[in-house]
Design a protein that fits this description.
Chain A has about 240 residues and is α+β, with helices and mostly antiparallel strands. Chain A has 6 helices and 8 strands, in the order E-E-H-E-E-E-H-E-E-E-H-H-H-H. Helix content of chain A is about 25%, strand content about 15%. The relative contact order of chain B is 0.13. Classes of the chains: A alpha+beta (about 240), B alpha+beta (about 325). At the A-B interface, strand 1, strand 7, helix 4 and helix 5 of A face strand 1, helix 1, helix 2, strand 3 and helix 3 of B. Strand 1 of chain A pairs antiparallel with strand 1 of chain B.
Amino acid sequence: MDDSSGTFSKVESTPPVMQLQSREFLKRSALPALPGTGLALGQLLLTDGNPERSNTALATVPQVAVEKVAVRLRVNGSNYGLRLDPRVSLLDLLREQLDLTGTKKGCNHGQCGACTVMVNGRRVNSCLALAVIQDGNEITTIEGLANGDQLHPIQTAFIKHEGFQCGYCTSGQICSAVAMLAEVEQGTVSHVTEDVRKPGKAVLTDDEIRERMSGNICRCGAYPGIVSAIREVSTSMKGVSDTR
Amino acid sequence: MKPFAYTRATESQAAVQALLRDETSKFIAGGTNLIDLMKEDIEQPRHLVDINRLELTRIEQYQGGVRLGALARNSDTANHHLVRQHYPLVSQAILAGASAQLRNAATNGGNLMQRTRCYYFYDLAMPCNKREPGSGCGALEGFNRIHALFGASDQCIATHPSDMCVALAALDAVVNVEGSKGKRTIPFNDFHRLPGDTPQVDTNLQRNELITGIDLPAGGSVFAAHSHYLKVRDRASYAFALVSVAAALELQNGTIKQARIAMGGVAHKPWRAREAEAVLIGNRPDERVLRSAAEAAMQGARAYQHNRFKIELGKRAIVRAITIAAGERGAV
């Protein structure tokens, strides 16, 4: 991001308030001015447009308004320029604003893996990622894996090996598996790797697959099919390091 | 989630200054714990300072040891060749925790700052002195199966959830911090604190301080050939420890010259078992010695209604961890 001059030369502040709604306020004592914005957040005029509530209920308590933040993202090869409430998770951004509903909301607490996407090629839980923090990043979701009508080999293998029943965890499982195979190619070790001191690529045994995929829960218990699908792709695509 | 102002910092001193603008401000890096806590309204910062752009991601040789950048991701740290070769205990501990997705996002500094997973801390309907000082401790007479055996108080019996920190405690790591008044270092075993009467305070980090890195000291690499991190949990992967043991030995002709034993899941901080280390030093790691070391380690344990099993579990875990560490393939 660009640096600006001034006292906090290396701090980029958020842009001013775009829209104020009553639920966007928070009780607060005081928040000094944010540089570059000219805003003293604790001193904003507080009204939600409802004359009955305006100056008494809201204005007597110093509050903060949510300031929308400019964010640029590349998702599945398309560029987006957005202004976002900083509370928006990457998951909610994808599903609610970009209409990419292939990524699923399971637990929303980083415990199930249904929301797994790749950020700059690395798998993460999009439910625990603030969208504003992703500024400048490249996101790949389940919608970005196929090449036209040609499915990604992992997608094909999941179908062949019945790596799912209800399918709710599947897009997370597939994104996770694609990134996992790339991690193996990069020579990463896991909790079940024999000796972490030994350099080189780990042999992708079923135990390795299970451990490396443990962040993706399948409530239907389709694990045998998931492991078979990944095993098949890992043995048939030796040397693949590309995430496509 | 409550609204908050968002500031992005690209230089550590600017980040520290930005934090001072509100008493509830928090740094955010990987966010894997903080965002979850904010969703639950357990944490309610009015201002987040995003430190992801700070240049603190390097892992490099430093004074004969290795310096881990505070913003290096857990996965990159565990897989870095310097860490794998010289401090395999740290790699093992990191890889025993969380999932690949979480380790890809979580940072080293954030791992130190993560909060307890005590059920009562997470449940807003329950009393918790850590979440709401003075409200009481729901765990004390509640379902306290995962709770502390050592160093607890009648205010809080929560445990620290990290695996990585247990290895760092065993290896006498050093935490580098920077505040508005300058830089300082904190020995790892002084970084986290016991609950006492202020369980809401997890660490000795000052309000205005930023973790910039963690040093693995030169002396720690002598344990590379004989170290092991053993984690015992309710499922095979992706669960917090009931008990974990970081064991590191330096062997000379089969005799233990130096020993480091630290435990996770048993206290409000990574718990260094110095009594066990004293039993081990100068002896051969045979069954009798290991069992006395385990007995020594657990001597001061105080169990609650549902966690008594962790005392025997802890002893067995210590024996097993040291046995594996002492073996031919100590880093397995």
